[in-house]
Amino acid sequence: MRGTFGLLMLMALTGCTAVNVVRAPSMGDMREVFVTTGDVKGPYQSLGVVQTTRRGVLLFGFADPAGTDMEAGMYESLIPEVRRMGGDGIMNVRFQQTQYILPTRILFAVLFFLPLPSEVTLSGEVVKLGPGAAPPSAGTPSR
Amino acid sequence: MRLLVTLALLALTGCTVINTANVPSDRGGKDIFVTAGDIPEAYESLGMVQATRSGVLLFGFIDVVGTDLNAGFKDLLIPQVRQMGGDGAINVRFHQTQYLPATKVIGAILFIFPLPSSVTVTAEVVKLRR
Amino acid sequence: MRLTLLVPLLLCVGCSAVSHGTKLSDRPPEGGRGLYLSTGGAPRPYRTIGFAQVLGYGVTVAGVSDLGDAALDSTIKRSLVDTALRMGGDGIINIEFEDENPPTAVERASDLSESISNAAGGRGGVKTRSRNVVVTGEVIQFLSQP
């Protein structure tokens, strides 16, 4: 009874929503590759599809030594892969990150000997823009 | 031993499962259209829809209630679009439970345990501005 | 041996996996031969014929050998394309794909180590890991010639 009450209190105090955001690379810097969840208008050459997955654990409910959030997934795995493939950018990106609400994280901070599994996956089609094609407008945060 | 059985089952039954739904449609206005992408025409959004049908596969193969893609599109999504007064559905996403032939054969042998199965279709229902 | 693998696993060094597939269609498509394949839309007007979902299943044996059809290329370019051709399609658009459980470098090393230690201990039991690749797409027919 006290446990349930405690959990409800925790949820009331901390909320039940988990939000993760990652900013797309700035298009002001032309050396950056573009990342878009949409299609590319104009000509392009497809270089192939790619999916990157980062898997690890959250220690103490919060510490993410492996980098399994969208920031790490995009900047440490996806974008280096796009560069390695020789692409100007990646389109039709889909993404999925393990999310835990704050009460769960707090609970596992208390139960610190039990790490929380965590994973982020991003995928898309890598393209090289054709002559005259402009990268899609960026700067919209992905959520 | 387990590895051998797994490999033998895979070799005998194949490793790919394919499901399709035939939903011929264009945006000519005669029938409800369905597309997984966006459309260039102007439209009014009527709302989002998610339709799921769950059931079981008896003897591993018999889909009593219809939980395949065809049912998902023809029995669930399209009637829902009509009900909402829409001309079609855009940005459709779909998923059907898929079992390998080897799993279905096991389901047929262990017939007292039916295989759970479901199909889910999500989309945005729209009305074209003509 | 296991401990040396468990520590990096917990600290998560090398916990990423990358799945690749070869190129799809360019826009505008070159030559006009073969099916048009894209994760995005179509380059010209089309009618939808239907939708397809393909599951490619495979097994990673001892962390080193991938058997079966759980690869992006075989699922998209063989199974999905064959399906679209059978349906009478000219192309597949809005392709979505997911390699549901790609093993990371650490998981592969762990599976290999477990398989070797099982074999050395006379316990047999090579470590296997199931793999699933799910691909969906919209099968289309173009309304005009390129």
Task: Tell me what you see in this structure.
The complex is a heterotrimer of chains A (143), B (130) and C (146). Chain A is α+β, with helices and mostly antiparallel strands. Chain A has helices at 2-14, 70-84, 102-110, and strands spanning 34-35, 44-58, 89-97, 116-129. The longest helix of chain A has 15 residues, at 70-84. The radius of gyration of chain A is 19 Å and the shape is elongated. Chain A starts with a helix and ends in a 14-residue tail after the last strand. Chain B has 130 residues and is of the alpha+beta class. Chain B has helices at 2-13, 69-83, 101-109, and strands at residues 16-25, 33-34, 43-58, 62-63, 88-96, 115-128. Chain B has a five-stranded mixed beta sheet. In chain B, a hairpin with a 3-residue loop joins strand 3 (43-58) and strand 4 (62-63). The mean pLDDT of chain B is 89. By secondary structure, chain C is α+β, with helices and mostly antiparallel strands. In chain C, 28% of the residues lie in helices and 36% in strands. Chain C has a five-stranded mixed beta sheet. The longest helix of chain C has 16 residues, at 105-120. Chain C is elongated and about 65 Å long. The model of chain C has no long low-confidence stretch (mean pLDDT 87). The chains are: A alpha+beta (143), B alpha+beta (130), C alpha+beta (146). Chains in contact: A-C, B-C. Chains B and C meet through helix 1, strand 1, strand 2 and strand 5 of B and strand 3, helix 2, strand 5 and strand 6 of C.
Q: So what's the oligomer here? A: heterotrimer
**Largest interface: chains, residues each:** B-C, 34 and 38 residues
Question: Biggest β-sheet of chain B: count, sense, barrel?
Answer: 5 strands, mixed
Determine Rg of chain A (CA atoms, Å): 19 Å
Portion in beta strands of chain B: 35-45%
Parts with pLDDT < 50 across at least 5 consecutive residues of chain A: 138-143
Largest sheet of chain A: 4 strands, mixed
Round the mean pLDDT of chain B to the nearest integer and report it: 89
The helix content of chain B is 25-40%
Distance between the termini of chain B: 65 Å
Total helical segments of chain A: 3
